[in-house]
Design a protein that fits this description.
three-stranded parallel beta sheet, alpha/beta, 105 residues, elongated, 3 helices
Length: 105
């Protein structure tokens, strides 16, 4: 579902019901939200802010102390960003990958 294509009552219902389903299935409280497909607007942010502590988008980028906690950027992680030439996790490869991402922005 693309939230920005729906009426606000449908959006509110979808946000609440999805949370209930996830909490029931996992047995854990859900406190953070991710916008489906990264699509949101100010009205949707307001609905999310009523029930969640933060929300992330699909926009690539870092966050800072001044970032809007209901439209947080994120860094996508893939296998090449975290593994060495033997296929093992490497914190050094990961740190280098994050550095490269920060330089690109």
């Amino acid at each position: 579902m693309i939230l920005t294509n729906e009426q606000m009552d449908v959006v509110e219902d979808e946000i609440c019901k999805s949370r209930e389903i996830i909490e029931k299935e996992t047995g854990r409280k859900v406190i953070h939200f991710c916008y489906p497909n990264g699509n949101y607007n100010e009205c949707i942010k307001e609905i999310v802010a009523k029930s969640y502590k933060s929300a992330c988008t699909t926009r690539t980028g870092f966050i800072s102390k001044g970032s809007d906690i209901y439209s947080l950027n994120r860094i996508g992680i893939n296998e090449e960003m975290v593994t060495d030439w033997r296929g093992n996790f490497s914190k050094y490869v990961f740190m280098f990958s994050l550095f490269i991402e920060s330089v690109r922005r």
